[in-house]
């Protein structure tokens, strides 16, 4: 029997390295949620290396969202005029749909800071950036990375966040991933997509520069005692903004280069997961919520779930599902749904 390989991972327009990086980000976020990791990363102590997923996975996820946005809107040849108008309408609809999915997940009992509401807001904030070229995108990202930590710190200082309404607003806007700062990662990812991945030497050069920025952010800026310079996970300090942002771009570039080799075939299962990150992320939180719903009260939603060591079962189940879906169907179910609705709302052919 001959099996027809559907779209998804095998689609000609897909960049395999970007899918690989997305897959790594998905599993990194799984680990950050359900694995007891070391509280602090020390390069010389292997026992602490599990800490690398904390904060960095979600920032890689956000940077890749920017890459996806850039690729969807023309890649290295950004759309203009009528196509740009279509892109903006579709992106706005994607933002609304992603926010709606995030809101639904936020209502579920899984004790996780859901990132999707922040994504919805970030996509709206990115609308004016869709026509920008790489240089202004990276300049904007750098300026935000340096300035936004002070803005976020001032907002965080408000006693409002320690009230019940404050907690609700925080969840509704995904403030654990503050959009005022995280727009830098979206812009950086868009800048990377605008440069393009066609030339291996260019990708290598960008990756090396980004790796250097990561070292500066974590080891130099982050070593300062000033809170605004912190490189700690989810601190939104300048050290984290530069360090984790640089690391994210370096990882993406490394994945792109790896997928120019036979490793592309070996990495296919992870690439399959990366081709449907919204589905994989949502599935993880639904699985956790279902586990909570099926337990006898009282239940510890964090300690109880971690006690069953869910990382490998969830990861294997995600791999199997995503591989089968990519092989026999194509695009992930949520990715297909969001894309189809966005295209229906903003068809490519404009009247007038």
Automatic annotation (TrEMBL):
UniProt cross-references to Pfam families, sorted A to Z = HGSNAT_cat
Q: Which UniProt keywords apply?
A: Membrane, Transmembrane, Transmembrane helix
Please list every transmembrane segment annotated in the UniProt record, as residue ranges.
20-39, 59-79, 91-108, 114-130, 137-155, 175-193, 200-221, 241-260, 272-291, 311-329
- On the tree of life, the source organism's domain of life is Bacteria
Which residues, if any, are the signal sequence?
Answer: none
Kindly give the InterPro entries that the UniProt entry links to this protein. Answer: HGSNAT_cat
Coiled-coil region(s)? none
Positions of the Heparan-alpha-glucosaminide N-acetyltransferase catalytic domain: 17-222
Q: What is this protein called?
A: DUF418 domain-containing protein
């Amino acid at each position: 029997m001959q099996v027809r390989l559907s779209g998804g991972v095998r689609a000609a327009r897909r960049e395999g390295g970007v899918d690989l990086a997305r897959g790594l980000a998905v599993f990194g976020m799984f680990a950050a949620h359900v694995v007891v990791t070391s509280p602090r990363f020390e390069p010389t102590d292997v026992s602490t290396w599990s800490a690398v997923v904390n904060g960095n996975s979600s920032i890689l996820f956000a940077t890749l969202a920017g890459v996806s946005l850039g690729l969807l809107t023309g890649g290295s040849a950004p759309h203009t005029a009528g196509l740009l108008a279509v892109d903006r309408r579709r992106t706005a609809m994607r933002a609304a749909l992603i926010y709606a999915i995030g809101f639904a997940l936020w209502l579920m009992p899984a004790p996780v800071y859901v990132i999707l509401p922040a994504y919805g807001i970030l996509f709206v904030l990115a609308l004016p950036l869709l026509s920008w070229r790489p240089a202004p995108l990276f300049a904007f990202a750098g300026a935000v990375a340096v300035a936004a930590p002070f803005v976020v710190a001032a907002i965080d200082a408000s006693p409002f966040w320690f009230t019940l309404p404050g907690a609700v607003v925080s969840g509704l806007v995904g403030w654990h991933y503050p959009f005022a700062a995280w727009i830098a990662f979206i812009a950086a990812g868009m800048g990377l997509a605008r440069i393009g991945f066609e030339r291996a030497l260019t990708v290598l050069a960008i990756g090396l520069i980004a790796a250097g920025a990561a070292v500066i952010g974590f080891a130099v800026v982050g070593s300062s005692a000033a809170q605004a310079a912190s490189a700690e996970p989810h601190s939104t300090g300048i050290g984290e903004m530069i360090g984790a942002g640089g690391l994210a771009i370096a990882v993406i570039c490394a994945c792109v280069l790896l997928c120019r080799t036979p490793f592309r075939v070996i990495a296919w299962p992870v690439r399959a997961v990366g081709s449907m990150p919204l589905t994989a992320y949502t599935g993880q939180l639904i699985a956790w919520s279902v586990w909570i719903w099926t337990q006898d009260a009282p239940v510890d939603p964090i300690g109880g779930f971690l006690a069953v060591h869910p990382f490998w079962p969830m990861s294997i189940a995600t791999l199997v599902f995503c591989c089968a879906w990519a092989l026999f169907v194509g695009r992930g179910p949520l990715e297909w749904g969001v894309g189809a609705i966005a295209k229906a709302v903003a068809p490519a052919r404009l009247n007038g």
